[in-house]
Predict the 3D structure of the following.
Amino acid sequence: MSAVLELGPRAVHARHLRVRDLVGVASLLSLARVPLAILFVFTTAIEAQIAILACAGATDLADGWYARRYGRVTATGALVDPVTDKIFVAAVVATLVVHGRLPLALVPLLAVRELLELVLLAWGSIRRVTGGAPVRSPAVNVLGKLGTLAQFVCVGLAVVGARPGPLWAAASVAAALGLLAGASYWRAALLRAPPLPLTFVPESRKP
């Protein structure tokens, strides 16, 4: 897998996934959200849940800042960051829904970006099966980060027991940002995707 990352003047163009990049500071900050997700599932105290959300949000800001600031942007980090975001948010949302603190109807709104990314992944798989060039994964952009922030705000409101009005408002913002982010990912993928090879078979001439 390759990725071209344009996240700042000191960013690097890292094209290959490397296992050794998993132990870099930025990747470790991203990976920290996995144990935080597990911890949230088994935590019932509101204060502790808020602290976990704050820690996860801090790692989400710190990993990108560190990678850009010190020129440590890598393809591995670009993959790990959004994956750990999704793992954390999914664990938190599932926990809140199970305990009745987040309406199930809000889950599709929070998952708009993920659904668009899933369709994009399916399209890329179809291209590979049909002999087309693989679709390059677009880098995480500002819209994607804002969408994640909106998801964090919504689940944070659910943790503190906010009324349905603010929850729906936050989820709607997350859905709108998710739609914009997903559209930007699709646009980037379509612009970078080479056309599928076309084979023309001449019609048989009649005798």
In short: Residues 1-14 have pLDDT under 50 and may be disordered. The chain has one domain: 19-192.
